[in-house]
Amino acid sequence: MSGLLARRLVALPFVLLGAALLIFLLPRMAGVDTVRSVLRSRVAEAEPDPEVAARVTAELGLDRSWLEQFLRWLGHALTGDLGISFATRTPIAPQLGAALEVSAVLAAGALLVAGLVGIPLGVWAARRPGGLADRAVTGFSVLGVAVPEFVLAPVLVLLLAIAVPLLPATGWGTPAQAVLPVLTLAAFPTALAAQLTRAETLDALGRPHVAVALAKGIGGAQLIWRHGARLALTGVTALSGMFFAGLLGGAVVVEVAFGIPGLGRLLYDAVVGQDLPMLQSGLLAVVAVAVLAGVAAELLQLALDPVARSEAET
Amino acid sequence: MRRVLVALAVLLLVAAFLPVDALTTNLADRFAGPSLAHPLGTDNLGRDVLARLVAGTRLSVWFTLLAVLICAVVGTLLGLLAGYAGGAVGQLLQRVLDVLVAVPTVIVGLVVAAVREPGPATLLIAVLLTGWTPFARLAYQLTLRERAREYVEGAVALGAGPGRITLVHILPNAVRPLTAHACLRFANVLLSLAGLSFLGLGAQPPTPEWGAMLAEGRQYLFAAPQLVLLPAVAVVGVALLVTVLGRRLEGRWSGR
Amino acid sequence: MPTTPRRLLAVVALVGLLGGCGGTAATGDPVPDGELRVAAQFAPRSGYAMDTDDAFVVAQVGSSEALVRAGSDGTPQPGLATSWRQDGASWTFQLRPGVTFHDGTPLTPSAVVTALTWVAGVAAPPRAIKGIGLRATETGPDAVTVTTAAPDPILPLRLSSVNTAILAPSAYTGGPPSVIGTGTGPMRLVAAQGNQEAVLERNDSYWGGRPQIAKATVRFITDPAARALALRAGDVEIAQGLPESALLEFTPGNGYADQTVAAPRTVSLMLNQKGAFADVRVRQAVEKALDRTALAEQALAGSALPASELYGPAVAWGSQDPPAGPDPQGARELLAQAGSPQLTVRLQTYPNRPELPTLATAVQGMLREVGIDAQIQIGEYGPQEPQLLAGDYDMFLLSRNYLTDVPDTGSTLVSDYSCAGSYNINQYCSPEYDALLAPLATTTDPAGRQAVFRAAAARLTADVVGVPLVHSQENAVTKGVAGFVVDPLAKQLITPELTRAG
Question: DSSP letter string over A149-172?
């Protein structure tokens, strides 16, 4: 077990380096006039002026060769200095940290809902396959995977903020403001969790030792919950990649729709404003989160599922 | 039930070729209600909503299909190769997959849009960059599993080369789960495409595309909610259709 | 989540009861010391840097002020300076007595010099003061002298720009100036959370009178649909820049008040005179083919005004007349005369302003009627700009603010239409036109300058240098406020007269 994980962790810096180089090169290879884009994002209707462009190019350090730029950036990044944003001309690291915090809260909230609602729903549905509960849950879960966030967001706002003025429609900071975005983001993982849990529970119920236990008369409900929930968790963590991809991607749309200052919104603004350093750092953060999430998920899976553990040790 | 699903799927594929007029504006007849001339009414520029929905299948259905197909072929090839080579190459693929599978298409789309102009080509690139990973993983695992089977060992003993083994033994068994998976990925790609268009990074106006129609329609949410609901139903409907189809295929073919 | 029907009914009933207690807001008496929430249209993208467009945000929320105010008639009015006098290439500004910054320090000539010296020395100088060689020096205990490289007739107007706002000396300590608690305006910036929201408190010792609003929260919501939702849900009292369709929802009967004013912004169809549109008859044909009234009232659903020339009702020298009606037959005749009865051209634009793709589609339809096949290409503005400047395009739909940030349009006339202009997209070059602009270098008198503007605009219309299509409008919808006025120059939002009404 530790061998597999060690290999994963050793690969991490190389993966990040490769990703950093790729992300660094991409905008520069495309031949977009970065300086003009940056200037226009500062003053929307400024006319082109070669003198000003030259001054700002030097100011942003874009007049050096790309290798030199990359090595400089790398050197600073290793000491924790992610550079200066082209847009705000202030350090990137604090902005990125704040955005990560917000996105983490949003994602954690969505995952919590997915776990607390999705898993029990799946187990409940599996108790009587083909029954009313099962069909309702299956219907909900299939719908939840198919409805995109930008459709769900205005619907939820319409229902819970306007028709019934219960919650604020936009903004971030108070618990009340967090409800609608978290619910919108949670739809996909909850539905997925319910589906997986149901499948795993049905599978578990079919296994010999469980059937024996049931035959012996050991409490059915308790058994289902204990085995089903645990197996569901392993199933969920096995698909953690898809989960996180769904969460991060959905978060961008939710953040833009609700005006939340998270990582997705930061990346979107960086793309629109050609803020290359911010884009680089933001993307690296995403990649790092993705890899770390994968490692964490695997750890969790190994901890929960003895079968996987023994497989990993061979 | 399955026949109904298949019929619907065929209908979607055919719709893209129907000669509908999705672009002509009629400023005097905006926000019209359903009528014989316009069964679903008109939008904010007087264009026929039904025509735009139908024309939207070109992007939403065919383009997505193309993207999924390319992903499937590329991913499967890479997975097969890695599965066959095994060892270090296989490990490398695993590491790359670990990272890529968790990077969402929307974010990749953002990056690609930063270096290129927004548009269908950009979307294709964005989808391709990460979309091949699930297929590669699946193909890799299948290849490993099949290689260990007796009949493959037997074939090797008989002197069959790796190419032949792959084509004759591994691929036929892989096709079914891959197809089922492709259906599931289709919904995901469709939603990513719509999401990117919603963010303004996908199809540009006046191209009819369901996500873009949704984004435009949000402004008129109260005045004309059907401009939001109809494309939403289209997106969700097609995603649902393909997902259900995929699950049924998967269930049928993997013996669950 | 599943719940028993009875429980669901009870929840709905309870919520309905609570919801009903709110009642509809009535426009009533001003509520003193009220709290205000605003949904603002543009977010500060550059960290509130005062040499960028973010300076508009700092000014709108009522925190910063400049030496001069722009009057509604385009003349300079006293701001932090009460009077000024020209002396060759220098202008001496008399500072207003008794003004203190939000951090308690007094407004002194030294503070003004610090502020102006900073803005004159940034790498990308603001348009208002670009290229004039601005230098500021103290003159006595209450005056500042500003000198330029050459005598400048509109220096006071330039110093009404939000980029030249005067912040406290404590703001200018290296790096971008800090805007928290360093202004002079009616509201003091207390917290600025990135580009999400800004919190302000009343400045009790404001020189222009004690503000009515005690606390304000400005939320930056760039998505127009989200702004409308925020207003609808009661999250804010003022929402800027709502799409026309949303206005239908906010009726006076429900307590909403809508203000729409003409903005100094025109959407024009640029015609490349170095390429397909070198012949003036072809350009005239395009003009005759377009029904600008229909574009404004139908395609844009009345959210813009039809344009007959470059300048509209937002400025004193603008035209109030409606444009000539469409003449498709005349257009066809002109095209035949010019020898190109059928024309295929590219019509390019960008999607950042929602009205542009809509207009492009409508224009395409109108041009088709006279035999011009316009193929629409919509893409990001950035990559297209080099093509435009090089004259490698056919038609381009552009939205342009012709007042930049100084209520004097002289610089736009030079940059956009003179032979050597840095932004002459139409590729227009006419020595007669350049000669028309000559008096602008020396005329101080506003009436004289406005006469030049009118003449220049008339010349551009006669030569069909691009076709101005519509004049944009600014709007805002409010509920439960009094004393709110939409500023077409986008410099004022929260003023001392603004108050909650109950």
Answer: HHHHHHHHHIIIIIIS--S-SS--
- List, as one string, the DSSP characters of B156-211: HHTT--HHHHIIIIIHHHHHHHHHHHHHHHHHHHHHHHHHHHHTTSSSPTTS--HH
ipTM above 0.85, yes or no: no
What distance in Å separates the CA atoms of residue C177 and residue C196, rounded to the nearest whole number?
A: 19
For residue range B102-134, list pLDDT tens digits in order.
677 777 777 777 667 667 787 788 888 878 888
Q: How do strand C34-40 and strand C238-240 relate by DSSP bridges?
A: parallel
d(CA A168, CA C452) in angstroms, rounded, equals: 52
d(CA A295, CA A304) in angstroms, rounded, equals: 14
Please work out, in degrees rounded to the nearest 5, the angle formed at the alpha carbon of residue B9 by the alpha carbons of A188 and B235: 35
The amino acid sitting at B217 is: G
Distance CA B237, CA C269 (A): 40
Nearest to C233 among A32, A161, A274 (CB): A161
Terminal Cα distance for chain C, rounded: 39
Rounded to whole angstroms, the Cα distance separating A180 from A160 reads 8
- Calculate how close chain C gets to A202, using CA atoms only, in Å: 21
pLDDT tens-place string over residues B3-57: 777 788 788 788 878 887 777 777 677 788 888 888 888 887 788 888 888 888 8
SS (H, E, C) C33-56: CEEEEEEECCCCCCCCCCCCCHHH
In this structure, the strands spanning C90-95 and C81-87 are antiparallel
Residues in chain A within 8 Å Cβ distance of C385: 36, 48
Please answer yes or no on whether C362 and B27 come within 8 Å at the CB atom: yes
Rounded CA-CA distance B28/B31 in Å is: 10
Single-letter code of the amino acid located at C282: V
What amino acid is encoded at B93 in this protein?
A: L
pLDDT band at C185 (very low <50, low <70, confident <90, very high): very high
* Beta-bridge partner residues of C78: C68
Q: What is the DSSP letter of A34?
A: H
The verdict on C254 touching B (C-beta cutoff 8 Å) is no
Q: Does A51 touch chain C (CB under 8 A)?
A: no
pLDDT band at C149 (very low <50, low <70, confident <90, very high): very high
Q: For helices A276-304 and A306-313, give the axis angle rounded to 10 degrees.
A: 100
Which residues on adjacent β-strands are paired with residue C481? C500
The first and second tokens of residue C27, run together, are 């426009």
Q: Residue B7, class by beta-carbon neighbours within 10 Å (0-12 exposed, 13-18 middle, 19+ buried)?
A: exposed
Cross-chain Cβ contact C365/B25 below 8 Å: yes
Cβ atoms C153, C442 nearer than 8 A? yes
Tokens 């007959």 belong to residue? C308
The two tokens of residue C156 are: 């006071």
Annotate A4-23 with b (16+ C-beta within 10 A) or e (fewer): eeeebeebbeebbeebbeeb
Q: CA-CA distances (angstroms) from residue B153 to A251, B170, C48?
A: 48, 12, 69
Say what the pTM is.
0.83
Note which residues in 201-220 of chain A have CB less than 8 A from chain B: none
Three-state secondary structure call for residue B255: coil
CB A190 within 8 A of CB A114: yes
User: What is the per-residue pLDDT across B58-105, written as a single tens digit (0 to 9) for each?
Assistant: 877 888 888 889 988 898 888 888 877 777 777 777 777 776 766 777
d(CA A180, CA A178): 6
C-alpha distance from B197 to closest chain C C-alpha (Å): 12
